[in-house]
Amino acid sequence: MAATKPIPTLRGEEKVYFEEAKNGRLVYQLCRDCAQRIFYPRTVCTNCMSENLEYVASAGKGTIYSFTTLHVPGHPEFADDVPYTVVLVDLEEGVRVLADLVDCDPDDVKVGMSVEVLFEAVTEDFTVPRFRPSAQ
Ligand SMILES: [Zn+2]
Known about the structure:
single chain, mainly beta, CATH 2.40.50.840, 3-stranded antiparallel sheet, 8 strands, binds zinc ion
């Protein structure tokens, strides 16, 4: 599978995040010292600066906190995708995640809508977590 769109060079904590996504897990970090939940992945805790962090798998369910629908692509390679919607999702575990919303007409998106994660392989080595309206 060859990429037709730009793919980021992964390093550090984001490399772990996308490796987990490739295995079908949406992860966030948990501080072992103060129990702070952290997203996006970082080197130190956002609350106590501890480096004693672990990755925890989310159930991948949440609600839309906010969203925007793009009608002009941010990069020429995404011209065929517009309009598409980008959402901020509050996961049940208490972290907020930025991702694409799929399987939903932009006119039907609403704040508070229940969504669930799915994983789309962009290449053999790069998988992106995305969200869709919950089946329930
Ligand atoms: Zn902490």
